Amino acid sequence: MTRRTKEFADVQDAFLTYVSDIKYATMVTVDRRDRPRARVLFPVWEVVDGRPVGWLAAYKTPVKAAHLANNPHTTFAYWSPRQNAAFVDAVSSWAEDDASRRHAWRLYEEGSPPGLGYDPARYWPGGVDDPGYHVIRIEPWRVQVVRGSDLGSVIWQPED
Q1: What is the model's pLDDT at position 4?
Q2: In angstroms, how far is CA 4 from the centroid of its own chain?
Q3: What is the pLDDT of residue 159?
Q4: How far apart are CA 100 and CA 106, in angstroms?
Q5: Do the Cβ atoms of 69 and 62 come closer than 8 Å?
Q6: What are the helix (H) ranges across 23-130?
Q7: pLDDT tens for each residue of 26-79
Q8: pLDDT more than 90, % of the chain
Q9: Does the pTM of the predicted model rise above 0.85?
Q10: Facing residues of 58 across strands?
Q11: Is beta strand 134-147 parallel, antiparallel or unpaired with respect to 85-94?
């Protein structure tokens, strides 16, 4: 059974618990011919003004950059062997400003939510100024959480 809500607070605890437990998400973009492309990445999350916001430290590959430039709609899928899952439909964009880059770096270092994070200097030894370090801001417009024990589902979508 699927329940719908316009309040993220109704799915927040389950969502943050699942992403903290699962850690890696499959990110799906689409190319200019509307073909999907998936890759496994490690976003961090926070809640701002009652809404989820994701941050993804990433290499700005030509494929990823072209896909987001053509169509910023993305999906992030989390799944565990216990069948717990979370699906995030979002608009994603490169956050090139220093404040966003520093903010995302700090969230990775601190773990956001707790238990989810790593030392980004392992990949970008030059710190936030490393030329290979880029950040994608993830702005969800729909989040679904599925509980594996009974396949109960809740969908957060603030607008139809």
Answers
A1: 96
A2: 21
A3: 86
A4: 10
A5: no
A6: 62-70, 98-110
A7: 999 999 999 999 999 999 999 999 999 999 999 999 999 999 999 999 999 999
A8: 94
A9: yes
A10: 134
A11: antiparallel
Q: Tokens 């109704």 identify what position? A: 10
Alpha carbon distance 135, 37 (integer Å): 19
CB 145 within 8 A of CB 157: no
The HSE-up count of residue 53 (CA atoms within 13 Å, CB side) is 14
Coil/strand/helix, residue 39:
strand
Q: Is the pLDDT of residue 2 over 80?
A: yes
> Which letter, b or e, does each residue of 134-148 get, where b requires 16 or more Cβ atoms within 10 Å of its Cβ?
bbbbbbbeebbbbee
Sign of CA pseudo-dihedral 7, 51, 91, 122? negative
pLDDT at 160 over 90: no
Distance CA 82, CA 78 (A): 12
Which of 79, 52, 24 lies closest to 143 in space, CA to CA? 52
Token pair listed for 13: 């605890």
Structure tokens at 120: 């980004």
